[in-house]
Amino acid sequence: MADQLTVSVLGTGIMGAAMARNLARAGHAVRAWNRTPAKAEPLSAEGVHVAGTPVEAVRGADAVLTMVHDGDAALAVMREAAPALEPGTAWAQSTTAGLDSVPELAAFAGAHDLLFYDAPVLGTRDPAEAGRLTVLAAGPVRGREKVVPVFEAVGARTVWAGEDGAAAGATRLKLVANSWVIAATAAAGEALALGKVLGVDPNDFLDLIAGGPLDMGYLHAKSALLLEDRLRPPQFAVSTAAKDARLIVRAGERHGIRLDVAAAGAARMERAAAQGHADEDMVAAYFASFDEGNGA
After folding, report:
1. For the residues of 212-280, what is the DSSP string, one character each?
2. CATH of the domain at 154
């Protein structure tokens, strides 16, 4: 594998910025672009070249990594970058795009002779900053020398889910995992909201289940963010969770099943976002239990 790659990171939000930093720390030449330039500018102090356009970012890149809001945004930015995309460039598409979008993204890659990797990640802000994400990847064996070093720089583990990125094997696995994450987060918020109106100290609830079969570290971590008012900056934002929940619901509908918990989770996230919590951590869906969204 190459000692150093030139990697373009398109999208430098919570996850993309952390991934760009870790790629630079691993010794790769990194070019980053974001539609809101101010979000990318801090990366220049860490050895990342901040590009003014997608074309500038991808010119001469061995690999392109997209980490934007959704599949439509990923396709839009790659269309902007198209004049500078070279045949044989590897494209690691790490946005959670959903089953409807992946074939369209793969078709774009095929039309431009790119090596397409469906490569969403599991993890939030802290593991992203630490380079401890789990990368879920599907794509051809030919060309993996251009993406494996990228995945190793941003993650602690790569789980391969097939050799055909267009089949969306990695995205399918990500949606199943996210269905659990969103359900657990919504349930945690509801339990804390019920405790509040019933006069139950949240610590009594957490102590009650501690160490038993109902306990999980994720519950304590998310509860702490809420109880200690550490919702900003988010580990994973309400608005993004709402988008992902809708992708999960659509995936179920597409295959003939109802996902009532996912649909309820999406509705809670959307209600919390409408109440002003869109840019807070997803556990802020707690506030959707209250009419005014203030937890009162």
Report:
1. STT--HHHHHHHHHHHTT--SS-SSBHHHHHHHHHHHHHHHHHTT---HHHHHHHHHHHHHIIIIITTS
2. 3.40.50.720
